[in-house]
Amino acid sequence: MSLVGKKAPSFVAPAVLNGYEVVEAFSLDQYLGKKYVVFYFYPKDFTFVCPTEILAFQEKLAAFEAKDTVVVGCSTDTENSHFAWLSMPKNKGGIQGVKYPLVADTAKTIATNYGVLGGNFDIDDNGQMIFVGAPIAYRGTFLIDKEGIVRHETVNDFPLGRNIDETLRMVEALQHVEKFGEVCPANWGEGKEAMKATVEGVSDYLAKN
């Protein structure tokens, strides 16, 4: 079930900040009323597609920050695993140089509440608890506004890397809507014409484009 239009699930969990600082009680609540948040999930530390995305977010971090937006990553690995990977140079397969927070969802409750856990717990014929599926997170991305409301989400399967530029475009689109009260048509980009949410507005836009 989509979280769009709903309050982003709250959590308190360990995280690694600035690439080296381990904190035990990280929460997105600290950004309420202050920042937009791009909160994204990735499947595993020390894998293959994941570092390309994590590093791509870091490369675009200044662009997100210029839009008053923080980036926060999350997987079901431990904070110790995050720390070890963050300490490893990129030419050795690591993600050294990543400065934004990486959250440790070892209980898998955050991924579950955001609807991106790749499976679920069940009971087998012998009454034993089992996990059906993959006990890791899909590549979920959530854009949360300053009021803590999810305004955009996408979820990719494990082998499908996401487009970081598209995530930034959605931040820009949301902020344009909030600032100007216009809506953003297909393929809109910052600096392009948007339109009024009226019949006349749509007609004018289509006539010009």
TrEMBL record:
Source organism of this protein record: Cytophaga hutchinsonii (strain ATCC 33406 / DSM 1761 / CIP 103989 / NBRC 15051 / NCIMB 9469 / D465)
UniProt name for this protein: Thioredoxin peroxidase
Family: Belongs to the peroxiredoxin family. AhpC/Prx1 subfamily.
A GO BP annotation: cellular response to stress
Compartment(s): Cytoplasm
Taxonomic lineage of the native organism: Bacteria, Pseudomonadati, Bacteroidota, Cytophagia, Cytophagales
PANTHER family: THIOREDOXIN PEROXIDASE, THIOREDOXIN-DEPENDENT PEROXIDE REDUCTASE, MITOCHONDRIAL
Domain Thioredoxin: 2-176
Domain of life the protein comes from: Bacteria
Any one of the GO CC terms: cytosol
Keywords linked to the UniProt accession: Cytoplasm, Disulfide bond, Oxidoreductase, Peroxidase, Redox-active center
Active-site residues, Swiss-Prot/TrEMBL: C50 (cysteine sulfenic acid (-soh) intermediate)
Role played: Thiol-specific peroxidase that catalyzes the reduction of hydrogen peroxide and organic hydroperoxides to water and alcohols, respectively. Plays a role in cell protection against oxidative stress by detoxifying peroxides.
Keyword Cytoplasm appears in the UniProt entry: yes
Molecular function in Gene Ontology: thioredoxin peroxidase activity
Cell inner membrane among keywords: no
